[in-house]
Amino acid sequence: HATAYNYFHNREAARLARWLGHNPQPYEREAELLARGLRELLWRPGRGGFAEYKDLLGLQRAHPSAALWTFYHTMDSAVPTAPEAWAMTRQVDTELPHLPVRGPGVPEGLHVLATSNWMPYDWSINNVVLPEVVHTALGYWQAGRPEEAWRLTKGALVAAMFMGISPGNVGSMSYLDVYRRESQRDFADGSGVLSRALVEGLFGVQPDLIANELSLKPGFPAEWNRAS
């Protein structure tokens, strides 16, 4: 995720330099090298998705089990091609813990995600957190999978707003977290990324001020026939 961040910032610095009439080539070159390094050192052939990191010392092995933040930051940084993006969503589908959201009046088929499959449980590495889930949902919208994107978003909102101990709350920790429960329900982490997921993902409103463009690419579920 750190390399993806650096790729994104160098690419955007190149756009800004060009817009301001400066030389974009140093930033473009750095972005090109970072993207090449990601694929040569971290892409997992045959399994899809990028590894979490590569050890600097010793055997220099790549950690194969990427956490949610590596998925959504890499997607958000516009690193993957369309086939790579699809493969990355499949890694989340098959390797990350899916926790069902169930209860009286709750629709069938909803779930949320743990941030990683790492063991043992420890704070901040394998929690169940609303903003992590909805940022992952935004990544699914960016990868062209609106149905699962909405399922994740709805699962996170139902778990927080309907099943949680603070009705209507956009909180942080989920009651499905095995140890922490809703101990950080008042954090503001979820507000910004939930807004992005709904505006940029579900409704597909994506502004680009440098390019003076506004693209509209709604990610509505197939069964919807209206939205407002």
Brief sketch in words of this structure:
The protein has 228 residues and is mainly α.
Tell me the layout of helices and strands:
Blueprint: H1 2-20, H2 25-42, H3 68-76, H4 82-95, E1 98-100, E2 111-113, H5 130-142, H6 146-162, H7 189-202, E3 205-208, E4 213-216
Antiparallel strand pairs: 1-2, 3-4
Helix pairs in contact: 1-2, 3-5, 5-6, 5-7, 6-7
Descriptive tags:
globular, 46% helix, single chain, 228 residues, mainly alpha
- The spatial strand order of the largest sheet comes to 1-2
- Give start-end ranges of low-pLDDT stretches: none
Q: What's the shape?
A: globular
- Distance from first to last alpha carbon: 34 Å
Structural class: mainly alpha
Give the tally of β-strands.
Answer: 4
Number of helices: 7
Helix content: 40-55%
Over the alpha carbons, how many angstroms does the gyration radius reach? 19 Å
Question: Main β-sheet: number of strands, strand sense, barrel status?
Answer: 2 strands, antiparallel
Strand content: 5-15%
- What is the string of helix and strand elements? HHHHEEHHHEE
Mean pLDDT, to the nearest integer, reads 93
Tell me what you see in this structure.
- With 228 residues, this protein is mainly α.
- Helix content is 46%, strand content 6%.
- The chain is built from 7 helices and 4 strands.
- A two-stranded antiparallel sheet has the order 1-2. Strands 3-4 form a two-stranded antiparallel sheet.
- The protein starts with a helix and ends in a 12-residue tail after the last strand.
